[in-house]
Amino acid sequence: MVVLLAAAGAAAYRWWPSDGDDSTALTVRYRTEGPTVTDAATPWLEVINTSGKAVDLADVTLRYHYTADEGARFAANCVQTSLDCSRITLHTNAAQKAGPKADHYLEVGFAGEAGTLKPGGTTQAIGLQLYRVDDKKLDQSDDYSFDAEKTSYQESEQVTAFLDGAQVWGEGPDGETAGSGRRADADAPAEAVQPPAGLLFDDFAYTGPEDPSLAANGWVVRSGAGGPGVEDSWSAKGVTFPAGEKEDGGQALRLEARTDGTKKGTVQSEFHTARPVFRDGTFVARVYFTDEPVNGQDGDHVSQSVFAISPDHKSKKYSELDFEYMANGGWGRYGPILDTTSWRSSDLGDRVTKPHQTKLGGWHTLAMTAADGKVTYSVDGEVLFTSGKTYLPREPMSINFSNWFIDLPFKGERSWAMKVDWVYFQSGQVVSPDDAAKAAAGFAAAGTRHVNTLSGE
Predict the structure, then answer these.
(1) Which residues fall within 8 angstroms of residue 151, CB to CB, at 6 or more apart?
(2) What is the distance between the alpha carbons of residues 77 and 63, in angstroms, rounded to a whole number?
(3) Rounded to whole angstroms, how far apart are CA atoms 300 and 292?
(4) How far is CA 403 from CA 48, 147, 253, 349, 423, in A?
(5) C-alpha span between 243 and 435 (Å, rounded)
(6) pLDDT tens digits for 370-411?
(7) Among the four 11, 88, 253, 430, which has the fewest Cβ within 10 Å?
(8) How many helices (H) and strands (E) are present in the chain, helices listed first?
């Protein structure tokens, strides 16, 4: 519906053929939704080429100006666009000079694959979220670019636009001057990295388990019935995306398992792709394991797991690849222990596995590669286990992260947490963990929070 509104409204904008004059090259339209005080600001933007020549979107940047309430850190993500959110880059930056209604701005850019706008062309709707990463509500009443009256698309000169570094639309707040766009600014963020085909990447910049961007980007927060662990204890209550959790201070996926020692008082957490994506190729994730509870008594048998699995446990082509870290052990074994396991049948217990007696509290890069007739598991670039051709995946699997209790050995409140900084999956190719980490850093530097160029998307 939003895209249709944008397209239908495109005929209403002013048209100024510029004949080479870039000062009227672009027009920005804006609308908002929701209250002034809210969990997340929701600016929807549309860029229209009002020049007489084609405009490369890679040369375009927009700035949405706001005040960082209480000096809080802000983040942003893309909710919806016909251009594909993978082609939208987002940075939150401090203004060169703080003004009464703007001390920060959200800079919106476009990857090269976003294409060009013909004269009169429009990006249609670009739906964004801007939010405080401390999970507190924000007040938009002192935000320069916010206009509560614009609930349908209208031109907004409070959102500025730059073309190849020159300001071509809008009037910025005090301290923001023409020529301060991405191409002209020596301190500008890196250019957007061009993603290859067959790639899934996510930096986990979301507001919470109810964020509509999760479904749009192909993720599911598990809730409700089933195992493993304490049956029927899966809940979105343990899934958050707090700031300050990962090494650079940004957001991370956080999965909490908590209990009071009873089934009724237990919450387990799982986060996974909505569809099976991994049969062959390389899956890498930056993961934080914990060796002790966040609070409460130690001693639980907790499984902090990173794995790929068939959607149907009874499938004749069942496949599963696991990292399973148990700081206190489990199933009669002492910890800390990391299991690396390749499954061929869940019902028959057909698997090959290798346990590793190692303490892994902290951040680690985990990688599993299915290629060349084998599955290889590594941690921080060190190969720990290789399984042969018999245990290669036979059908596509979902990518999963979970934190759960193997059993409940005692009563009392306690909780455990694991975290995921980013995930990188390259279908059909062998990628080293170092190269995956470099690619992840490149996407983050360019403001690209999510990429999905897998076939079928």
Answers:
(1) 31, 32, 33
(2) 14
(3) 9
(4) 46, 42, 12, 22, 17
(5) 25
(6) 999 999 999 999 999 999 999 999 999 999 999 999 999 999
(7) 11
(8) 3, 30
DSSP state letters, 409-449: -S-S-EEEEEEEEEEEEEETS---HHHHHHHHHHHHHHT--
Close Cβ partners of 379 (under 8 Å, ≥ 6 residues apart): 323, 338, 360, 364, 365, 366, 367
Q: How many residues does the chain have?
A: 457
| DSSP secondary structure letters along 48-90 | EE-SSS-EEGGGEEEEEEE--GGG--EEEEEEEETT-GGGEEE
pLDDT tens, residue by residue, 325-364: 999 999 999 999 999 999 999 877 899 999 999 999 999 9
Residue 23: pLDDT band (50, 70, 90) is: low
Distance (Å, whole) CA 446 – CA 457: 23
* CB-facing half-sphere around the CA of 410: CA atoms within 13 A: 9
Amino acid at 230: V
Q: What pLDDT score was predicted for residue 176? A: 61
Contact 371, 279 (CB under 8 A): no
Sheet bearing 350-356, strands edge to edge: 219-221, 269-273, 398-405, 302-309, 320-326, 337-345, 350-356
Residue 440 in contact with residue 424, Cβ under 8 Å? Answer: yes
Task: Report how far residue 378's alpha carbon sits from residue 366's, in angstroms, rounded to the nearest whole number.
Answer: 6
Q: Verify cis geometry, omega within 30 degrees of 0, for the bond prior to 228.
A: yes
Please tell me the pTM assigned to this model: 0.88
The answer to whether the beta carbons of residues 401 and 418 sit under 8 Å apart is: yes
Q: Return all residues near 360 (Cβ < 8 A) that are at least 6 apart.
A: 289, 291, 325, 336, 338, 379
Please, which pLDDT band fits residue 16 given cuts at 50, 70 and 90?
A: very low
Answer yes or no: is pLDDT of 19 > 70: no
User: At which residue do the structure tokens 């963990």 appear?
Assistant: 433
What is the 3-class SS of 123-160, one letter each residue? Answer: CCCEEEEEEECCCCCEEHHHCCCCCCCCCCCEECCCEE
Which has the closest alpha carbon to 259: 406, 418, 415? 415
Closest-CA residue to 160 (of 172, 150, 151, 142)? 172
Q: Which residue has the higher pLDDT, 176 or 179?
A: 176
